[in-house]
């Protein structure tokens, strides 16, 4: 049976890979929202790109067989070994989404998107090419849908495909656009959230956020004073924090990181927190939201590789839209905020708030540089279409209840 | 996909809140087989589940998600494997007020090793209103040793919204990009 696809989906043939690698690839495609790729898993599918792993026991025979069957299909070779004179672009392993998607995009740039083996689609594409000689691929996110008739000075824009995930407008999805866009059915533009070129930031070492974060990391108890008045007692070792000032004052302090804050030892008899005091995490998390207000902690940017050590205890923390998605995403694999935004289609401000909050409670591992990233971890294969339908409906029910 | 495969398993020690959790989200009156506890469970609670709990969520068009709760007592552990066959997810409820909740967690991770290889796991920590410690951090450190990074969420099983959050965490663990 042919895999169900809509007109926006690009089928990708993957060869020389075992079930686990295919599962990882399937997941990466599923999560990549800007361009919908899908593994070609049936003889009836019409692939427009291929990825050929030449490290399998069959080695280059996989490539030879592929080329014989698909003489014109744009392909990417993946290998752990350096290859000279490769017959197609090579993506070194480990395959990471950060490099895979730009490489696939480059294939789309280099070759017009004409599906193989489907006379109907190929004929349509030929018509499109004849009518619109400037059919091309432009890189990068288009926040509004491209209307038909948009003339695109396209090819020169694709020449420099940045390696980073997000240099503002420079690096979002490849979107083929024809002068008669409706004549090219294979790939359609999709509204995509764009990582802001100039993302606001805040100093994670300043203000109440900075003070509490430092105390928490050192597990040091203290009384915190603002303008000479005690505003809270912090007990990180007991995971507690007693609030002794109006919330309005705390909000004000978070918004004014230069306010004068002082630390003092906890008064006698108050070395232990009241049992009903809020948890240290709940206060740190809330202070992070009041401080970040959609901004990134300075020192991190959209390209920083981030990972969560574990899920935050989200049922006991102030809500951030899509926090569960972000927690699931970043406990699974190290990735940048840009990548998370692109794959999950989230608001940059929510991502920044989540990052600031996780940094405050010491859950964020941001030391990983892109180069030090481990290969993609073993992941559960994504559910098949039928099961995904069930899970989506269950999600709707859980949200709506 | 067979209909009976749409099931989610709630497990955990005696009194962790399995019957309560299923009862707070099931759309039918949960089918339960609780009896007066007569042996070692007696000093902890008056009623215990001896067979299993069953609840249901109906998604329309006849599509259903079945919720099964295992009996907490270890002498019924022969039933666990039978119940969990084909489940789409496993929720382990840990009662923080028991003497060794970390030991309980390890016990249930081992008991459901087979299911864990193909179904995602979520940990719900209950009775934190009575016993705030161990914290989620402590469980996370333990799970890390098993190479596991599941959601660990404090929940009160009497609160349906919190139980639903556990299920949502399970869904996003399967697919962070799940739309719905
Ligand atoms: N205060 C408080 N009570 C809880 C919480 N969770 C469960 N309970 C109570 O604990 C008791 C036991 O809950 P059950 O749902 O019967 O536990 P179970 O896991 O089904 O127990 P078994 O069937 O014996 O294995 C009930 O009275 C619940 O209301 C919690 O988070 N806080
Ligand atoms: Mg019970």
From TrEMBL, chain A:
Protein name per the record: Uncharacterized protein
Organism listed in the record: Craterilacuibacter sinensis
Automatic annotation (TrEMBL), chain B:
GO molecular function, one term: hydrolase activity
InterPro entries noted in UniProt: Gliding_Motility_GTPase, Gpn, P-loop_NTPase
Residues spanning the signal sequence: none
Assigned keywords, A-Z: GTP-binding, Hydrolase, Nucleotide-binding
Gene3D superfamilies reported for this sequence: P-loop containing nucleotide triphosphate hydrolases (3.40.50.300)
Family classification: Belongs to the GPN-loop GTPase family.
This protein's name: GTP-binding protein
Species of provenance: Craterilacuibacter sinensis
């Amino acid at each position: 049976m042919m895999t169900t696809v809509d007109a926006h989906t690009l089928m990708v043939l993957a060869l020389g890979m075992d079930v686990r690698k295919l599962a990882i690839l399937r997941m990466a495609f599923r999560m990549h929202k800007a361009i919908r790729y899908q593994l070609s898993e049936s003889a009836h599918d019409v692939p427009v790109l291929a990825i050929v792993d030449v490290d399998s026991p069959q080695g280059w025979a996989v490539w030879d067989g592929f080329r014989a069957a698909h003489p014109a299909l744009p392909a990417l070779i993946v290998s752990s070994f350096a290859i000279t004179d490769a017959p197609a672009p090579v993506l070194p392993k480990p395959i990471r989404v950060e490099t895979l998607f730009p490489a696939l995009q480059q294939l789309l740039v280099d070759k017009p998107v004409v599906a193989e083996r489907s006379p109907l689609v190929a004929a349509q594409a030929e018509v499109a090419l004849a009518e619109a000689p400037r059919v091309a691929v432009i890189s990068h996110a288009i926040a509004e849908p491209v209307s038909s008739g948009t003339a695109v000075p396209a090819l020169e824009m694709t020449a420099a495909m940045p390696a980073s995930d997000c240099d503002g407008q420079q690096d979002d999805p490849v979107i083929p656009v024809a002068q008669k866009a409706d004549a090219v059915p294979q790939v359609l533009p999709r509204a995509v959230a764009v990582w802001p070129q100039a993302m606001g930031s805040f100093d994670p070492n300043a203000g109440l956020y900075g003070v509490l974060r430092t105390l928490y990391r050192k597990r040091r108890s203290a009384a915190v004073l603002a303008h000479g008045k005690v505003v809270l007692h912090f007990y990180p070792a007991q995971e507690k924090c007693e609030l002794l000032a109006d919330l309005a004052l705390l909000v004000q302090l978070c918004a004014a990181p230069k306010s004068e804050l002082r630390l003092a030892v906890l008064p006698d008899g108050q070395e232990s927190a009241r049992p009903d005091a809020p948890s240290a995490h709940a206060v740190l998390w809330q202070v992070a939201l009041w401080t970040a207000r959609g901004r990134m902690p300075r020192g991190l940017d959209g390209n920083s590789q981030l990972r969560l050590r574990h899920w935050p205890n989200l049922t006991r923390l102030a809500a951030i839209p899509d926090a569960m998605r972000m927690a699931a995403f970043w406990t699974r694999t190290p990735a940048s905020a840009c990548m998370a935004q692109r794959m999950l289609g989230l608001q940059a401000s929510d991502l920044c708030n989540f990052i600031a909050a996780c940094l405050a409670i010491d859950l964020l591992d941001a030391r990983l540089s892109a180069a030090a990233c481990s290969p993609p971890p073993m992941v559960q294969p994504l559910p098949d279409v039928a099961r995904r339908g069930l899970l989506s409906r269950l999600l709707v029910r859980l949200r709506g209840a | 996909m067979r209909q009976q495969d749409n099931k989610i398993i709630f497990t955990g020690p005696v009194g962790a809140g399995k019957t309560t959790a299923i009862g707070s989200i099931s759309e039918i009156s949960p089918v339960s087989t609780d009896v007066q506890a007569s042996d070692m469970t007696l000093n902890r609670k008056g009623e215990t589940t001896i067979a299993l709990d069953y609840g249901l969520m109906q998604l329309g068009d006849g599509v259903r998600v079945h919720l099964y709760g295992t009996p907490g007592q270890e002498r019924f552990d022969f039933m666990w494997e039978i119940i969990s066959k084909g489940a789409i997810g496993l929720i382990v409820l840990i009662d923080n007020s028991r003497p060794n909740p970390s030991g309980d967690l390890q016990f249930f991770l081992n008991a459901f090793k087979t299911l864990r290889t193909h179904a995602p796991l979520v940990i719900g920590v209950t009775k934190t209103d009575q016993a705030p410690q161990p914290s989620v951090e402590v469980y996370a450190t333990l799970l890390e040793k098993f190479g596991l990074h599941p959601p660990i969420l404090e929940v009160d099983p009497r609160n349906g919204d919190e139980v639903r959050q556990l299920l949502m965490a399970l869904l996003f663990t399967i697919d962070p990009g799940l739309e719905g």
